[in-house]
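During the reporting period the student researcher (J.K.) took over the structure-prediction task from the postdoctoral fellow and processed the backlog of single-chain submissions. One of the processed entries is reproduced below for the supervisory committee.
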Amino acid sequence: MQAIKTAISMDKNLFVQVENIARSMNVSRSKFFSIAVEDFIAHNKNREMLAQINAAYSDEPDATEQLLRSKSRRQHRKTVEGEW
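J.K. obtained the following structure tokens:
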């Protein structure tokens, strides 16, 4: 893996929290930020996937599909009528 050095600016209070957590995890600040960014990217991908899944299931069936469902229900009722 090729490492790229970068500089970021942040609120001092946030920096102190990062320092404390990185120390408690026994990792460098660089490793801590790498972990945090990887987690953020994974979370964002999951959120996008969930949005796509929700979009796929949110649409109502069109008229043709509704008609087929209705016919299928009627046929099923005729088939099982009197068996129950």
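The committee noted the following: Residues 29-58 form the longest helix (30 residues).
J.K. will present the remaining backlog at the next meeting.
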